[in-house]
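During the reporting period the student researcher (J.K.) took over the structure-prediction task from the postdoctoral fellow and processed the backlog of single-chain submissions. One of the processed entries is reproduced below for the supervisory committee.
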Amino acid sequence: SYQLNMSTTPACPLIQLKLALTPSASASSKLELANGAAHLFFLVLSSHRCRIDEEVTHKAWLNRSNILFTGTDKWSLDKRVTLVNSNNSDFSIHISKVQVTDEGPYTCTFQAYNKPRITHVYLIVQVPARIVNISKDVSVNEGENVNLFCLAVGRPEPTVTWKDQKCKLPFLACFDGEFLDITEIKRQQGEDYECITNNGVAPPDKRKVKVTVNYPPMITDVKNMPAQLGKTAILRCEAMAVPTASFEWYRDDHRPVENDNTLRIKNEKTRSLLLFTNVTDKHFGNYTCFASNRLGASNASMLLFRKLSHTHGVRMCTHTSSRSLFHHCCHFCHPISPSSVLPSPLSLLISSCHH
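J.K. obtained the following structure tokens:
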């Protein structure tokens, strides 16, 4: 509770009493403001004490022009306002469950030695900052503009700050104001953005908005892989995309790759695997990974080639024709069948060389 002793000297100035509405586990009441926003006010007690040092004949408490008490007679219909003390030296009132509407001037007046005496107190009610409206989670395509808002109330008026959760973007690490505008958003900016409001009355109120940035697949991990007959082998294709990409595999003659007893396709969240459980001659060749979502597609090719047991005769042979390939790397290089060749004229193949 709050108590205020007020001087009865004529020179007594106007006194301001700041009263904060803070959480209490014991009781609470709810107040609907004019704008329809619900504010929860917790049990707070306020006492106004008028200490009297002279012989008094009449006394009264007023709120603005409304009479609360005259002596021990209560004029106010508000049950929250009660009289604490009423004697020749103390005339105090008590307000429970303080509300914003209780803010304002209070006046203690009394008659002493045929002279009126007046003492004033001004009650200021503080309300913790609270977010009352904020943007919903949003999903946009890369390159679009994003506009977020965060509206807060409180007494005194609170500040509003937007915070970049990943802290990857210096210009968005901390942005003051109710509105956050992002122009031509990038995929790296898809994250949670936190709105923080504070007015120093209570701990800050915080809420987050999730911004999802959609973009087409981009294949990031493609490697040619060696394999031995009768052994296992894996070709990997990883693609970053939002929404998550779907994967398809094709052979060099554009045939779709399908599961069989020696080959299995395993699709994970961001990648697809070709699992060879028993490599045979038919498995060697070029494979194309195709990743797609509703925004676009991407593809990349890779080679599953035979790993030689003797490496001293291995050379890199440049592909110069899509139909046949001859290149002297030692004494000569065996022709490579078209099924083993990448479709690009700049692709590299490995062939066995004989001395």
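The committee noted the following: The chain has a mean pLDDT of 75.
J.K. will present the remaining backlog at the next meeting.
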